[in-house]
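Batch manifest, entry 17 of 40.
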Amino acid sequence: MQVYRGIGHRALSGSGHALTIGNFDGVHRGHQAMLALLVNEARHRGVPACVLTFEPHPRDFFARRTGRPEIAPARIATLRDKLAEIARCGVDRVVVMRFDERLAAMPPQGFVDEVLVRGLGARYVLVGDDFTFGARRAGSYATLDAAGSAAGFDVARMMSYEVHGLRVSSSAVREALAAGDMAQAETLLGRPYAISGRTLHGRKLGRELGFPTLNVRFGHPRPAASGIFAVRVHGLATTALPGVASLGVRPTVEDGGRVLLEAHCLHWPDGLGAEGGYGRLVRVELLHKLHDERKYPSLEALREAIAADTEAARSWLAARATAAGD
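Output type: C-alpha cells
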C-alpha cells in the first residue's frame, strides 16, 4: 500500500480513484465493511482504492483551537496501526491530509473541487451515513451527491454496521476501552485490541525491579485505553509471548510523563539475550484489564505491585488457554 502525505502528487491526480473519506480511528468492523465495498468497486472500475484520512483528527484540531484539549476524543490507534489495518483490508493508497486552518475553513464546494477532483481525480466516492464535510460541516451526503453529478464522479452511501443490534463506531470502541471491557472492544474491532511500535531503551527501572520491560510509545496524549493488562506480545519469537503490560503515564515514577506502553514477557526467548528486544517492531495485544494505573508510595511498593500483577496476568492467561483447549 502506498502512503501519501497530502494531495500534491502527480500520481494521485492522474490515475483516478475509488475513494472513501474518514478518520478511521481503530479501523473497526464497520470500517472494514466499508473498505471491502470500496475495494470491490475499485476493482470493478479498474482504478486504485484510496482512503483519504486526516492528521490530526479534526476534533483534536478544534479542541486545541478553542483551548479545550480535554474535549478531543481519546485515540484508539496510532497512525502506524491505523495504516497497517487499512492495508490489511486491501486498500491500494492512503492519503494522510494535514487538518489545519486552511482545510477547516474550506467550503464544501472548494473541498470537492480542490481535493476530490483536482487532487485525487475521484471517480467514485463512498461515505458513511453520517458524513459531513467542509467549513462548519456545511456539506452533507446530498451536497456531495449533487457535486458528484456535476463533476462526473459517482457517490454512494453505506449505512451503519451493527453487531448484535449495536451500531459499530469508533465512539463505541472508545467506550469499551475506557470501561476496560476488552472482550467488547474485540467484538467491535473484529480482533484483539493491540498497539504496535519499535521498542525503545528506557530508564531500565523495570530491570532494576526484577521485571524488565519492552517500551513502546503511544503517540497521542490521550489513549482510549489505560491501566494494567494481561497481554500477548508478537514480534519476538515464532509464537506470541504471554505477558503483563502497563499503558499510561507511570504516576509512581513520573509526573505528567508521556504515554508509554511497557510490556513484561512472562517467558523470555533464550536466543534474544538481555538486549535482544530493543529496536524490534512488536505488536502487543491487550486482552484483559487487571486494574487502572496506581501511584505507589515507594519503589518497593511498586515492585510488590508488579509482582502481584504478573501473577494475576499469568493466572488469567492460563485460565484462558485452558478454556480454549490450548
